[in-house]
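@channel sequence for tomorrow's demo:
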Amino acid sequence: MILFVTGAVLWHKAEKAIGPVAEMQAEKYAKRSSNEIISSVVSEFLDETRYTYSDFSAVMHDEAGRVVSVEAVPYNINKAQSELALRVNHDLKEAMEGTMEIPVGTLTGKYLFAGKGPRLKVKLCPAGEAEVSLKSTFESAGINQTSHSITAVINVEISSSMPMYSFVTEVSFEYLIAESIIVGEVPEVSRYAWKSI
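structure tokens (generated this afternoon):
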């Protein structure tokens, strides 16, 4: 009975020491792996589609040439979001078949044991569907000039599992899709206008 209690206490202490380091290592691996995959997908998507600023926004002027609104092009925005989401989800599922090995000594968090001992395999897989949205941001770019940037925001949850542990890491990436400098004052309120998130 005493051996059982002592073993349970030691196991609890070991788990408290190893758990946070295991989570940190798994999170680091999940972020690095998903960043490589998603960056590759976005790069290929932009190469193939060749989207420009005018594909997503139309700057409207009045008769005097003043900017009256910046209107979104909903069809292209929705198409880009859905296409990118499909590609990201497909490639994440296809690519995340490998594993990473972490030495047990590294999980102790002690420098002396780092890289030592048997290796535990860490398996990654998407915990759900990646979410893709296009974000519009207006920023001052000088006197009477406004920078309008359109970025793709990709949020994904990656599940990391290893013997005795399982973690879910939330990862968010943002990529510039298009940008333009608008000369003239942009109205604060405009129907169908892009809004900064």
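heads up for whoever presents: The CA atoms of residues 10 and 72 lie 61 Å apart.
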